[in-house]
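Dear colleague,

Thank you for sharing your sequence with our group. We've completed the structure prediction you requested, and as agreed, I am returning the results in plain text so they can be pasted directly into your records. Please verify that the sequence below matches your submission; if there's any discrepancy, let me know and we will rerun it promptly.
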Amino acid sequence: MNKNLKKFFLIWKVKELRNSILVVLGLLLIFRATSHIPIPGVDVEALRRLFASNQYLGLLNVFSGGTYQSFSVTAMGVGPYITASIVIQLLTMVIPRLEEIQKDGEAGQRRLNQYMRVLTVPFAALQAYGVIQILRQSSRGAVLGQLSVFQFATIIISMIAGSMFLMWIGEIISEKKVGNGISLIIFAGIISRLPATFQQAASTFDPSQIITMVSYVLIGIVTIAGVVFITEAQRNIPVTYARFVRGQSSGGGSTTHLPLRVNMGGVIPIIFAISVILFPPLVAQFFMHAKTLWLANAASWVVTVSQNRLIYAISYFVLVIFFTYFYTAVIFHPEQIAENLQKQGGYVPGIRPGVPTAQYLQFVTNRILVVGAVFLAIIAVLPLAVSQLTGTQNLVIGGTSLLIVVSVVIETVQQIEAQLVMREYDIT
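Please find the predicted structure tokens below.
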């Protein structure tokens, strides 16, 4: 029997793993159901036309998982929660008290997660207001007409509630250990729009667009191959365990390796980068009509600059590299690895145990991350270059979506395989 087919049957043979996958699928279906509950007072057709003609809003729609296009109660997706998590992780690196909490193991992580949840509420309110202002200004009142104070507050509260609901669903999915909940929510939103995208492409196909279609296929193949290559690539550090003798028994003396992945962050750097790119223009909407002239001019400049393709591409490229290093620093701790190796009698040949080993692991990680981060950033901005040549915006959105989809699939498959390995003896 084919190895992959055998793994597929094993997934459904293990009751706990099967139940986890079914729960995750059920939660994703609930997410898709809520994404079709529109907020009252919105002209959905005018909204779709606006998103189709605006690059920035199209990217915002991708990041939300397609919920902005219908302006549902879950329109903001998990964006506010991601922004809150970025802020907490940055603060953890500069505030000693938060760093101590992070080192407090599982209890500390639960406490930091609670801070993220609380911080998500004001970020959601800020983003909801910004999105409403963007839609009103971009459509000149076609999408959202005159709103009373009560209607305005109702829309914002509904959007905050929807975002918190998705945050809760994402955390439950993550607890099942068959994929990252936040990533899977974005993944489900992107996948759900594929049938409509293909149908639209088929109905509007023009032989003169054949070059564009070929470019789209090529960029898709390059993106898939590149993401798979970088995600699977790793540097194996040799580790030797000292031989010991205790009475009549002996042990140790084995040689193994410590795998260091080229891209340890998976799809998270991409999601973080998009979140940061989208946040400044949302905040700038608050000050577009400020009475202070310089503040209003600065806000208008931020909004204008955010829609410039060249600036967007450069910012996207730099942020992907930054967050690849940043997220790796958050999840990879060479000091702890070196300490555990020393306690177990292991050492890297030619490197002294303890601090020198930690420094060596950090040095190797920094070097291989250069390749992973730059390659991932190139793949992220490559659709922009192609869209500039072909004159279409679909490649920009499609390339970003494809990047997220492929990374999430790989990450989910790896977690499921890890669950199978943990239960291998029970299966056999």
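Summary note from our side: Strands lie at 234-241, 244-246, 249-251, 255-261, 346-347.

Kind regards,
the structure core
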